[in-house]
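Predict structure. Chain length: 570.
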Amino acid sequence: MFRGYVLFACLGLMLSSSSHASLKKLQKGTTRIDGDVVQTLITKAIANNALVVKIPPGEYYFERSLIVENAQNLRITMSGVSLVFTLHKGNTSSANQPVATGIRIINSHNTTLEGSEHSPLVIDYDPLPYWQGTVVQVLPELPSLQPMYVLKPLNSVEDLSSWWKGMKEAELVSIFWKPDGEMSLATPAGVHTWTFDATITNTSCPSDNSETHTSQSSQQEEQCSIISQWDYGWQAADVGDQLTIQPLTGYTLNIANSSLVELTDIVIHSSPNKALTEFDGLGGHVYERVKVIRNPQGEGLLAANSDAFHSAGCKNGPTIRYCEFSNCGDDFFNVHNTMQIVAKDVVVDENDVELYIAEPLLHESSAKLYGKNTAYGTAVQFEHVRQGDNLTFYRPHDLLLVATASVVSATPSSIVMPSNASQEISAALTKLGLPVAESFGVVTWRLIVSLTQVIPELLQAGTLPMGYVVNMEGWGAKNTLITESHFHHGYCTAGRMKSTDGVIDGNVFNSSIIHNLQLAPLPQWLEGPMRASNMRFTNNIIMNSGANPITTVPLWAPKLVLQNNSILFP
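Prediction complete.
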């Protein structure tokens, strides 16, 4: 079935054409139905203020996102339904139809998307949103180069390259796996990020005393050069090891600027980036019996190219109950809001002061491509600021509280700042001891605030400087509940949570590559709130994730309760 091999090197890839690992064989005997049928039923139900819409069982195929927008009090039932997504042809995109397709629930309230317990809604991709191959030969190491490998592909390189085309840059991560399909547990463990500026070349496979495959003619070959940026080092691979190379291009199930959405009995078998995401809005969403797992009938190693679950910028946190998240290329889960930044120096010699607040867009290109509040690093929380809301201000390098304020008035729209504002703010953060992990753009707001507390000894000459960080109190994923769920085999941390009054109780964590479960703000990624107080981590089992996997900072996560947890390690 597979026609060729792959040559993988530090400064180049030579890849062969082959037929991709088709989902058709996994859904044998079924007929694919155009996904527009589903879109039409849902759109009509929303327009008619229906309370229930039932999608007939079957396998539906999508070349664009399935949009659920402005739904109110709607139950969408998909028992026995499979949704198979692909990329946009030509990678065209708009705010409602990002490059990588999936389900998008936008500006909706009290809306349910459900399968059934014994016949869940299944979501997958065809072609797979990552490339996978098996090492069949290790080539002699060349001077000043990393080892080179010949790999037999599971799926076509055209499948992988099609996720790139039309994008100026793509972030790609690679993972080495053991022959039994377990992620390599060494740290560092062969992760790196790629940028690319070309196409791809076929190569013939080496002689192995069996059938010899040859490449296509040179006229049909695509030439490629790939420059790799080695972020975490490299681990040598052996014959029989497997490699995945995954782009990070979009989200599979995304909830944006919504409240009280419930997802029940859903299985996700692959995702081109984060599998489950919720950004902005009142939040309070519920995930029950939702699984991010490999397809047991397939050969694919990844269930999600990045996080299994990610929540950013919601006022109220999620409830995750009876779920299973596994084989993801990043964290099992991450729950947080976004820190804001003082955009201009403010003299605090009066009670009422004019304040400029910059909201960082860590992925400014994503904000332009997909729209605000729809992708990681694009949530704009200060759209929700109102008179009487409370703000707290912190010194950036150690998050010591320096002032508090109450909002007197806020402009209804953002303020245009100079084009170099984000660079100046980033430089100020670095100078103050908080270099941010990525470059960012900004959306800036003008507020009049009444200072209610100032700690002069922590300010510079009576000035609240550019670069000090700001938190909008009460808007920080409060009351998150993660319970009775199973998280296993992840390629980053066992989880990250910053949620006032949040609870993680009665779960099993098994085998995270980074032996770290973070229960505190993460300033270098501007993930807050800066005081994630009253969190509880109780009655959990943590396996194969190190002897001391829990990380926190008492000042940043006050009144944290750790109780009745079992830590098991070799």
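Summary: Helices lie at 36-47, 157-164, 364-370, 421-431.
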